[in-house]
Sequence to fold (361 residues):
Amino acid sequence: MEQALNSVSVVDDVLNKRPLIISGPCSAETEEQVIETATRLAKTGKVDMLRAGIWKPRTRPGMFEGIGTKGLSWLAQARKITGLPVAVEVATAKQVEDALHFDIDLLWIGARTTVNPFSVQEVADALRGVNVPVLVKNPINPDLELWTGAFERVAKAGIKKIGLIHRGFSSYGNTEYRNAPMWHLAIEMKRRNPEIMMINDPSHICGNRTMLQDVAQKAIDLDFDGLMIESHIDPDKAWSDAKQQVTPERLVELLNGIKWRHETTDAKEFVVALEKLREQINHIDDELMQLLGQRMKIADKIGEYKKNNSITILQTNRWNEILERAFKKGEALGLSKEFITKYYDSVHMESINHQNRIMNS
Ligand code: PEP
Ligand code: MN
Fold:
C-alpha cells in the first residue's frame, strides 16, 4: 500500500521540484519523534521529503550510532500519515536491503562512505536491478575524483536517478564551519555534471544554527537545485548533531527568508544589460591575461639574472614585501585578504616555475 502511495512516479515528481527541500532529524530516535517531526514538517507545506538517519556513522565509539532497522518502520508510518516520501543514509549492502524492504523512497550515501570505494561498491552492488533514486554526498576530503567515482559506481549499477549533495569538507583545526564549504569544488562538480541535480546541506557545513541561513542563501545564489536541512522537534535534546538542528517552524522562517532566484529569464532589458556587462568582463579578463603573460616574461628575465649570479629563486623578504603591498592596495579596492593571498600565491608559484625552468635549462 505504501508502494501505491509513493509509486515511483510520485517520487520522480517530487525529485523534479525546484527548489527541492528535504528535511528531518539527523537521527530517528523514537517513533513519536519521527512521526511528530514528519507531521510538523508536512504541515509547513514547504518540505518535499523527510530524511532521518537510521544507521549513524559516528566519529568516536560510544556516541549514539543510530536506532537501527526498527526505525525504518517508523519512517514508513510517517510516510503513511503525511504522504511525504522518505530518505535514509545507507553504507552497507545489508542496510540497502533493509531500506528497500521498507520501500524507502530515496537512499543517500554519506560523506564517510563516499571516501571508501570498497563501501561504495558494496552499496552499488546491492542496488543492482533496483529502481530507487540515490544521492551521493561529497567525500569528507576535498577530492572531486572520489566524489565522481562514487557517482560512477552507482550509475554503473544501473541506478538512473542520481543526485549529489554538497555537505562541505573537513579540515584540521578550528574554522568557522564544521565542514568548510569550499564552494569552488561544488561549482566545478556542477560544471562537470551539468545535468545532475545538486543540493546543498547547510546543516553539516555549518554545524550550528546561526550560519544556516547564509549558507542556504549562498547555495541558492549558486543555482543549487535544493536543500537538505536537519530539523528536530526539540533540537537541543537531539541525540546527534543537536547544535545544528532547527525546529520545523524555524525551518519555515529560514526558507521564507531566502531570496529565491532563477538561473535565467527572458526579460529583454535584463538580457541586454547582462550581455554588455559580460562583454566588459571578457575584455578585462583578456587584458589581465595579457598582463600576466608580460609579468611572466619579466620573471623569466629575472631568472636569467639570478642564474648568472647564482642567486636562489625564492627570496622571502621580497615575497613579504609584495604581499604587504598587495594587501594595502587590494583593501582599498574592496578585494578580500583571502582572495589576494590565493591570487598572489598562484601568480608567485607560476613565476617560480618559470624561473625554475630558466635556471635549470
Ligand atoms: C547526516 O546526514 O546526518 C550525515 C551523517 O551527514 P554526512 O554524511 O554529511 O556527515
Ligand atoms: Mn547529522
